[in-house]
Design brief:
Strands 1-3-2 form a 3-stranded antiparallel β-sheet. About 65% of the residues lie in helices and about 5% in strands. The chain is mainly α.
Length: about 200
């Protein structure tokens, strides 16, 4: 544990954070993500700021600059992290946003629509009554159902997330000499508020 952690009363250890990163990365790999992007994403997610430079990622994960570069290139392409220039420096840094999962899922709606179109053509080409056509038809029905439900699901998530943020903010004591309303006015932006990363 670092001196800064001790002074702030933070009981987390570098080992505990590293274990989380590797465990969550392994689960992402099991779900189909490549190993290095999974480790980089988990590392960003586990950092308090949600922002790390290439050098910081390399140091924390003990990987080469080339490995970091390949991982963040993939994560940027699938909208899981964003690249930004470090203020006053020529170095890039990489950010995972609190709403990254939501945003990534929202952008998948276009993908679902394209899949539906292709599957619909496939049903016609293969014949609705053929075994393959029926299989494609059921797959198409699933994606149509998913597309219909997704919009409402994401709206309900936003409402739920906002409620969670409000509850967390109401439990956070105001700073010295500040009323709760004044503390709320000077609070950090929503992307950095929640202990849970909301």
């Amino acid at each position: 544990m670092s001196e800064q952690q001790q002074r702030s009363g933070d009981t987390r250890t570098d080992e505990a954070i590293s274990q989380f990163v590797e465990r969550f990365a392994a689960q992402l790999v099991d779900a189909g993500m490549a190993r290095m992007p999974a480790r980089v994403f988990a590392c960003l997610l586990a950092s308090d700021s949600g922002v790390l430079t290439s050098a910081e990622l390399g140091e924390r994960l003990q990987i080469s600059p080339a490995a970091v570069s390949g991982a963040v290139r993939y994560l940027s392409q699938v909208d899981m992290v964003s690249r930004e220039r470090e203020p006053g420096s020529r170095r890039d840094r990489y950010r995972v946003h609190s709403d990254q999962w939501y945003e990534a899922l929202t952008r998948r709606e276009g993908v679902l629509a394209r899949w539906e179109g292709t599957l619909r053509e496939g049903v016609v080409s293969l014949g609705e009554d053929s075994p393959a056509g029926r299989r494609l038809g059921e797959t198409l029905a699933f994606f149509e159902f998913l597309q219909k439900e997704l919009t409402g699901l994401l709206e309900r998530w936003r409402d739920h997330r906002d409620q969670l943020r409000a509850e967390i903010d109401s439990q956070r004591p105001p700073g010295p000499g500040l009323t709760r309303s004044a503390a709320a006015a000077t609070a950090r932006p929503p992307a950095a508020r929640s202990t849970y990363g909301f």
